[in-house]
């Protein structure tokens, strides 16, 4: 599950990050000693100290975000007020209710407080406890790699043109010597540094935008779907209850240790379960739009099914699991891509496994059975979803996460 710090560290993601940090730092230390030696001037010393400081903070905040972890909802957690249970979702894996803003991560194996996303580079989720460290890690990495990409590019240029500088230069240009092996490693370091600036820079932009709005990546999706859903149905616009203004939102991140990750300060006029009710309403409507399929051919869960060339060439670029199926199995599909469907295997009254499977191996179930399955609640995650489905079927649910008066 990757929940302990040691297990998080022993993974290809953190190991790759440590190797990239080491490679770029080695290249910089090796080359600035020839290009602008720190012992020659105060400016050169400050330049070296600046980069080494960025490298050190990058490593520190990376390890902090990994070792601290995102913060998990305690197993068996439930709200103090029994009446609040109907506004929360229940996690059957953790055997507890999901606190506001928390979500279950199947890779970590727990419900994560204020879950933003699961990051393979730190081999755990970004959540309430490590969001600050993760953001500072991104900032340090982008600044350090931007610095390194400029300096290393200049050094490579001087190394390639070393002979010209030695014979026709003014004699004041720095002479950089590179062997074939160090040249290849330096070019690799330049590529890594530029890649970090581009890729991590884009992620940093999204993170900062979310921080100033006090929204996680998951909550951005929920709010976007809420806006379109309510506009289509003619409902009141959804008000995100945790946006306190960019100054307060930024302060909330920097002082996150003051909060337990289970309760949060709210915008005036909003309730603690507004977002949860909206999320439940979206899940209800998603389930109502889902379709039940019957499996016609066996599928062993292969990521590249050779017997289905079209599906093999259009395999989803996702690490979500593939669903093993046998003829006669029934699957509830909620998403689709070209030649693929994503759904949940129907197994009695419990919740079955979920994953992708080729659309060519299934056929749509009988419409009347499909309609009944869409209205039934036997496959719902929790009692609150049962309640909302039954209320909608009886006309007491208005689609906005609230009930109509009697």
UniProtKB/TrEMBL annotation:
Mitochondrion listed as a keyword: no
Membrane spanning residue stretches: 12-36, 42-63, 136-160, 180-206
Coiled coil: none
Highest taxon, organism lineage: Eukaryota
Predominant place of localization: membrane
Enzyme class, UniProt record, top EC level: transferase
A Pfam family hit: DHHC
Protein name (Swiss-Prot/TrEMBL): Palmitoyltransferase
EC number: 2.3.1.225
UniProt topology in membrane: Multi-pass membrane protein
Keyword line: Acyltransferase, Membrane, Transferase, Transmembrane, Transmembrane helix
GO CC terms: membrane
């Amino acid at each position: 599950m990757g929940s302990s710090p040691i297990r998080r560290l022993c993974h290809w993601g953190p190991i790759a990050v440590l190797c990239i940090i080491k490679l770029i730092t080695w290249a910089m230390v090796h080359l600035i000693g020839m290009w602008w030696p720190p012992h020659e001037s105060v400016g050169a010393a400050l330049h070296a100290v600046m980069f080494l400081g960025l490298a050190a903070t990058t490593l520190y905040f990376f390890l902090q975000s990994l070792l601290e972890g995102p913060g998990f909802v305690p197993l068996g957690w439930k709200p103090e007020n029994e009446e609040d249970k109907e506004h929360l979702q229940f996690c059957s894996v953790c055997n507890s209710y999901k606190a506001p803003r928390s979500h279950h991560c199947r890779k970590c194996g727990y419900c994560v407080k204020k879950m933003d996303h699961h990051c393979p580079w730190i081999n755990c989720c970004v959540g309430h406890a490590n969001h600050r460290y993760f953001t500072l890690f991104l900032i340090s990495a982008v600044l350090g790699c931007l610095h390194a990409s400029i300096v290393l590019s200049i050094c490579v240029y001087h190394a390639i043109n070393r002979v010209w500088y030695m014979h026709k230069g003014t004699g004041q240009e720095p002479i950089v010597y590179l062997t074939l092996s160090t040249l290849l490693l330096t070019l690799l370091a330049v590529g890594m540094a530029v890649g970090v600036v581009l890729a991590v820079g884009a992620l940093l932009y999204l993170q900062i935008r979310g921080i100033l709005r006090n929204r996680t990546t998951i909550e951005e999706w929920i709010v976007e779907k809420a806006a379109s859903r309510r506009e289509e149905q003619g409902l009141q616009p959804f008000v995100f209850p945790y946006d306190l203004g960019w100054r307060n939102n930024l302060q909330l991140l920097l002082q996150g240790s003051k909060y337990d990750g289970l309760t949060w300060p709210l915008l005036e006029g909003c309730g603690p379960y507004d977002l949860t009710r909206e999320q439940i309403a979206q899940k209800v409507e998603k389930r109502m739009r889902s379709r039940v399929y019957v499996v016609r051919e066996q599928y062993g869960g292969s990521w590249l099914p050779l017997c289905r060339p079209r599906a093999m060439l259009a395999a989803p670029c996702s690490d979500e699991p593939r669903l093993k199926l046998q003829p006669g199995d029934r699957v509830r599909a909620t998403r689709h891509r070209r030649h693929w469907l994503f759904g949940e295997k129907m197994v009695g009254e419990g919740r079955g496994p979920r994953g992708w499977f080729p659309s060519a191996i299934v056929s749509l179930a009988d419409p009347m059975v499909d309609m009944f399955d869409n209205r039934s609640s036997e496959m719902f995650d929790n009692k609150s979803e049962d309640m909302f489905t039954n209320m909608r079927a009886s006309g007491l649910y208005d689609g906005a996460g609230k009930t109509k008066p009697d």
